[in-house]
Specification:
CATH superfamily of one domain: Immunoglobulins
Strand order of the largest sheet: 3-2-5-6
Number of helices: 2
Low-confidence stretches: none
Mean pLDDT: 81
CATH class of one domain: Mainly Beta
Order of helices and strands: HEEEEEEEH
Number of strands: 7
CATH architecture of one domain: Sandwich
Distance between the termini: 92 Å
CATH topology of one domain: Immunoglobulin-like
Shape: rod-shaped
Strand content: 25-35%
Length: 119
């Protein structure tokens, strides 16, 4: 009696595994994570506060030392002046493509809009 019972249980278990093997499990899209850190400075190497830095999601803003740390699922870092003249001038938008999951960008130099027009 126990032999038949165990045989049926193992058969049922085997069919369950076969169904999972054939049909797989629920599909979930892989979202790689990226992170970047660094310091935003102007052309004279002075830190720039209040610059938005993002990896395609909610931005972080540089602190008074120009430092930032940002995480996201996008590998393109966007560095954008969102407050115009308030942080010492209007700066150009700057993009950096990441090639690793975590990158220390060091000093990121951004140009003032008027500097670009003069060149």
């Amino acid at each position: 009696m126990w032999g038949r019972f165990l045989t049926r249980i193992f058969a049922l278990f085997g069919m369950t595994l076969t169904c999972v093997a054939c049909y797989g499990t629920e599909y979930t899209e892989f979202q790689p994570q990226f992170s970047a850190s660094g310091r935003v400075v102007d052309s004279e190497r002075n830190p720039v506060e209040g610059i938005a830095v993002s990896l395609g999601q909610q931005p972080c803003y540089t602190n008074p030392n120009g430092r930032f740390y940002v995480e996201g699922t996008n590998s393109n870092v966007a560095i954008i002046d969102v407050d115009g003249e308030e942080n010492g001038g209007q700066f150009e938008t700057h993009y950096i493509q990441l090639h690793d999951s975590h990158v220390d960008l060091g000093n990121v130099v951004i140009k003032r809009v008027d500097e670009s027009e003069a060149n």
